[in-house]
Structure formats: structure tokens, C-alpha cells
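Hi R.,

As promised on Friday, here is the backbone we talked about, encoded as C-alpha cells. Could you run it through your design pipeline when you get a chance and send me back a sequence?
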């Protein structure tokens, strides 16, 4: 049975220090955090950690996840390959809010080399407290996995 107050988090070496700080903040906010790694600054392959988080969000085990790498680009590409995962790369609070309101983003992605700690913590807080609006946005999300026919 999944716990709605649990969040799964992962990063590569480039964003490890920021992941650690975000994890502390999540615990302070009352969340249970599952950290899939990495657990240090030694060079590693970001897809390993992106897949670990995305797989468990896609399965429904976790409602939400957070991923970090140097730019956030690689992690967002990895996570969005999983059906049902809507990973949003956010670099400021407005994109975080809109990713939740309009896209029901269930994975937040940030670039550890792109934003500072204060901005990252603000983005996380906005993302966590913003709800999905549903309505016309739900219809559009339903279109995500439908592949249109090839143009002739």
C-alpha cells in the first residue's frame, strides 16, 4: 500500500549535495523519503537513478518523485520514457506550479549545476503544495500516450 506522504528521490554525482539538502527539507516538512542514490560525489551514470525513481512512480508505488542531475535534462529524458510518468524540468517556481496545475507532473526534475539551493528549495515547496486543476487539462494529459497516425 502506498503512502501519499512518501517521496522517492534520486540524483547523480553532479547534484548529490543538492539532493541531500532537499531530502533534509522533505523530512522537515513531514515526508518520508526513499533515497535511491547516488550516495556520494563519485562519477556515476544518471540513467540508473532516473530509472529507479521513474519505475516506482510509474508502478504506482509512489505518487511523486524528485530527480536531479547536472542540468536536469538527462533525468527528465530518462523519466519521461516510463508510461504514466510526467516529469517536469523546473528552474523557477512558476514552471513548478504550472507543471502541477496543468500537467499533473508527478516527477520534479532540477539541474544541480543550474540553480542554487535556495531556488531549489522554493521550487520543491511550490511543487508540493500545488494541486492539479483537472478539467480540460485531464483531457489533454489523456492524449499524451496516444500516438497520432503518420502524416502522408
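Update: got your reply. Pasting your designed sequence below so it's all in one thread:
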Amino acid at each position: 500500500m502506498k503512502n501519499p506522504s512518501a517521496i522517492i528521490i534520486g540524483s547523480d554525482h553532479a547534484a548529490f549535495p543538492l539532493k541531500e539538502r532537499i531530502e533534509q527539507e522533505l523530512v522537515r516538512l513531514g515526508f518520508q523519503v526513499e533515497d535511491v542514490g547516488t550516495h556520494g560525489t563519485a562519477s556515476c551514470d544518471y540513467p540508473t537513478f532516473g530509472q529507479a525513481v521513474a519505475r516506482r512512480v510509474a508502478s504506482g508505488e509512489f505518487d511523486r518523485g524528485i530527480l536531479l542531475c547536472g542540468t536536469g535534462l538527462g533525468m527528465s529524458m530518462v523519466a519521461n520514457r516510463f508510461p504514466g510518468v510526467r516529469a517536469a524540468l523546473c528552474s523557477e517556481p512558476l514552471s513548478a506550479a504550472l507543471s502541477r496545475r496543468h500537467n499533473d507532473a508527478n516527477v520534479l526534475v532540477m539541474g544541480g549545476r543550474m540553480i542554487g539551493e535556495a531556488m531549489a528549495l522554493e521550487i520543491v515547496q511550490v511543487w508540493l503544495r500545488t494541486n492539479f486543476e483537472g478539467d480540460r487539462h485531464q483531457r489533454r494529459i489523456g492524449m499524451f500516450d496516444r500516438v497520432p497516425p503518420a502524416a502522408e
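One thing I noticed while checking it: The chain has a mean pLDDT of 94.

Thanks again,
M.
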